[in-house]
Amino acid sequence: MTRPQVSVGPAAQSRRDRQTSTPQLASSIDVASSPGSENVRHGRRRQGSGAVLGAVNAIRTMILRHELMPGEQLRQTDLAGQLDMSRIPIREALTMLAAAGLATHQLNVGYFVAKLQAADLDQIYRMRRAIETELLLGVRTPDEAELLNLRASNSRVVDALRRNDSDAQIMENRQFHFAIFELANLPLVLAEASRLWSMSEPYQMLLSGDPDALTRVTSAHERILEALISGDTGKLIRASDEHREHTRSQVVLLD
After folding, report:
1. Of 20, 55, 101, 167, which is the most exposed, with the fewest CB atoms less than 10 Å away?
2. Is residue 5 part of a domain?
3. Cα end-to-end distance, the chain, whole Å
4. Same structural domain for residues 96 and 140?
């Protein structure tokens, strides 16, 4: 199997320049997409929850883009300078990122970007299969408005793939799948699925540039939608398993 080309962006551009000049990624931590995060990212000082939410989203974006590499220490002073805010919201943001699985904490040392081995990623995908299967077993048939939203979401995935926009691919793909998962109305199970997706997304980002992705993902999403609309739960689970398994088989090779 050919290993896909790794694409992490221009190395010569500074982290801060890239952080303030590129669009925001949708956060896997729900609160990080709240209003106010843009102001922090563009250098305006904010107080309270707005600053924390902005810091969460900004640091997460840097991790996804591998501007902060797996295993790299997350120094509060450096991050506060880059994001133009005090260390207090940075510290709170790092705590939230650790809870989401994107960072780890070592007592008396500090926070680090989570670094996963192939065996770790394999386990994450095993857990994802079990949890996502539970969600798919409980989904209801979408109504007309929800179906229109799903088709629009899938169109945005396809558009991002055509543009080879890795940021948008991650964001739109997540929104498509979670719009389906939410039809199960199992919020606690959904939250655990979100945590596992967060842990694997920095490695999924490295798969951008796969020349076969457009055809493969388009076909997989159409099969998923067809099964969902027809109410064929078995077919829905099989289509989702096949889609997830291809990503798993590629991600574990990146270790």
Report:
1. 20
2. no
3. 15
4. no
Which alpha helices (DSSP H) does the chain contain, by range?
Answer: 15-21, 37-41, 49-64, 76-83, 87-99, 118-138, 144-163, 166-181, 187-204, 213-230, 233-251
30-73 pLDDT, tens digit per residue, is 433 333 333 333 444 444 678 899 999 999 999 988 899 999 99
What is the layout of strands, in order, in the sheet containing 103-106? 73-74, 110-113, 103-106
Q: Which residue has the tokens 């801060």?
A: 16
Of 84, 113, 142, the last residue of a domain is 113
DSSP class of 5? P
Could you please report the per-residue DSSP string of 151-216? HHHHHHHHHHHHHT-HHHHHHHHHHHHHHHHGGG--HHHHHHHHHHHHHHHHHHGGGTT-TTHHHH
Report the distance separating Cα 230 and Cα 157, nearest Å: 22
142 and 108 together in one domain: no
- pTM for this model (two decimals): 0.75
Output the six-digit token pair for 229.
């609309």
One domain, residues 68 and 146: no
CA distance 184 to 188: 11
What does the alpha-carbon distance between residue 14 and residue 16 come to, in Å, rounded to a whole number?
5
Domain that residue 144 falls in: 118-254
What CATH number corresponds to the domain at position 49?
1.10.10.10
Question: Helix, strand, or coil here: 114?
Answer: coil
- Please say which residue of 80, 95, 113 terminates a domain: 113
Amino acid occupying residue 40: V
Residue at 19 is within a domain:
yes
Measured distance CA(91)–CA(79) in Å, rounded:
10
The predicted structure's pLDDT at residue 73: 96
